[in-house]
Amino acid sequence: MKGVLYYFSGTGNTKWVADKFESIFKDHNIDLKLINVEDKEKVKSECLKKNDFIIVGSPVHTGFLPKIVCNFLDDVKFQNRNTKAIVYSTQGGKSSPIPLFMGKCLKKKGYKIVAQSSIEMPNNYYFSIGRKPDKHSIEKLLASAEKKTKYIVENFINNNVIIESKSEMKVLFGKILFNIFKKSMPKLSKNISSTEQCNKCGMCLINCPQNNITFENGHAVFHSKCILCMRCIHICPVNAITYKNEKIIQTQKYIIDSLKLKK
Ligand SMILES: Cc1cc2nc3c(=O)[nH]c(=O)nc-3n(C[C@H](O)[C@H](O)[C@H](O)COP(=O)(O)O)c2cc1C
């Protein structure tokens, strides 16, 4: 049996969970290939191949999915009636209705949804909304996220269906909230800027999923295609990227390695 896991991860949480899926499946002698949906060529060629199951993972952004994941769900191809699908979100809150929406998208394409789950992870946007995760809470969240991932895999292997019940109304509410957020994205992205400490290493520029950053007159400039994934803020090696001119504590430090950033 072999499967493929498609993910988007701004700051490492969703990829961290994807890595857990890969290693837990490996313990059961099942191959799972991980594909970042930012890599459109890889997505295109993988979609043509036969897999026994697929997994889609995404962070929650203002009650909904980042555009990059919506585009992927629109483009993903039908395989065959027996292809099973697991969908999961990671979010700063306890749970999210977003996997219900992801499941519906894949169901329309003919996939058989066998798990729909939201996994609580550290909040990477705490400087705008929610609480800043401390070291202890991060450790606790990672331990329970790993446990939940194991639970999903074991049930999948035993042919049990795991659907966390969520209301359609909450999905609709998230969609409305996200549409408001989408319109204010260009304005909100103006909250991001770099300080004198920037050493022009180019990490933010080459790793931005939107190719939205350039260097002009010796400064990193953030343009209007930003999706506010927060990657640039959390990956800067000298922590020179601020939000509303505030220095940010890079709480994703121990998780971000999972992204295997370009250097
Ligand atoms: C712009 C933005 C909006 C967010 N909105 C929510 C939200 O509505 N609910 C929530 O629980 N977490 C929210 N979060 C937190 C992220 O969903 C969470 O930290 C996620 O695990 C990040 O995953 P990643 O590291 O793979 O990008 C938001 C994060 C960002 C950057």
Overview of the molecule:
The chain contains eight helices and ten strands. It is α/β, with parallel strands linked by helices. It folds into two domains: 2-172, Rossmann fold (3-Layer(aba) Sandwich), CATH 3.40.50; 186-259, 2-Layer Sandwich (Alpha-Beta Plaits), CATH 3.30.70.20. A six-stranded parallel sheet has the order 2-1-3-4-5-6, sandwiched between helices. Helix 1 (13-27) links the parallel strand 1 (2-7) and strand 2. Helix 1 (13-27) packs across helix 5 (135-157). The longest helix has 23 residues, at 135-157. It starts with a strand and ends in a 20-residue tail after the last strand. The model has no long low-confidence stretch (mean pLDDT 94). Bound molecules: flavin mononucleotide. Ferredoxins are iron-sulfur proteins that transfer electrons in a wide variety of metabolic reactions.
Outline of the structure:
The chain is 37% helix and 20% strand. The chain is α/β, with parallel strands linked by helices and 263 residues long. The protein has a six-stranded parallel beta sheet with strand order 2-1-3-4-5-6, sandwiched between helices. The protein has a two-stranded antiparallel ribbon with strand order 7-10.
